[in-house]
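[job 4417] fold queue: 2 targets
>>> target A
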Amino acid sequence: VFIDLGWGQGIYSAGKQMGRQWTLVAFGWKSSDDGLLNKRVEMWDKMKKWLQEGGSIPDDPVLCADLTGVEYRVGENGANMGKVYLESKEMMRNRGLASPNKGDALALTFAFPVKSRGARVMDRLRNFAQPYDVLKGNFEFNAVKWNPFAANLN
């Protein structure tokens, strides 16, 4: 579970007390994509691509308004030159729009790659299934293939 560092610290603390392993995410963190200004636009970009590839969301008018209300811009000077960013919530308020809370919540699900529980279990099983060579004492597999029809049977 990814939680907004700006507003979710109380929820994070409660989850930690319950033994949950949740991750705080700051929307202002540096993006892993040099063409994007920060983590917020990176998450929204991944969400947009997921939706374009057939991702499904509920028929929720508030979520729909959130996803279509935010505008992107390209930095025109300084360190932001050429970087894509999303308009601030203050800019949205000036245009008469509410903060895109549901849109940001959905975007948070794209903060970092996540494997399904089944994929994580399979990864662990693959790690345990490595062949073991008793003579070498390591995890390399050095089986010799014997061909009884080969010309040289030494």
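>>> target B
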Amino acid sequence: ASQPSQRACTWSARRLPILLRMAQSAAYARIRRDVLAIVAAIPRGRLVTHAAIGAHLDVMPRHVAYLLAMLEPPERATLPWHRVVGKDGALGRRAGVDGRSQAELLAAEGVAMAAGRVDAASLAARSIAVGDLACDVPAQVRPPEARAPRHRRR
């Protein structure tokens, strides 16, 4: 097995305190709760993208992907996490608690795959808007002071 690079170890060691603080914040808890409520409402055979959930909650799609990647085994066993895909149909690398991959779980629901991702036609036909789900999570808009400042190029 290959060893992680020193740079990778330094990166994660530097950011660990930031991730721990973020995980303890009220905003993180609210976003996590909302993401899990949305995911729980996705019907069998339908798909939602990280970007659609992110747009609904006014967060970056990568934050949605991170929250789903960090599910605890009991959550992974009960939530239909596998119905959330990348905007291009890309699949995650994690497997369910039963060891089945996201592709296997989606195929069992009749979702067509092509080249290791959800087929574009299947993604278009099976996508459902977050606002159409039976969940009580209203669309969010962060106040301007809560938005991260944009960095200027020098």
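[job 4417] complete. Note on B: Residues 6-23 form the longest helix (18 residues).
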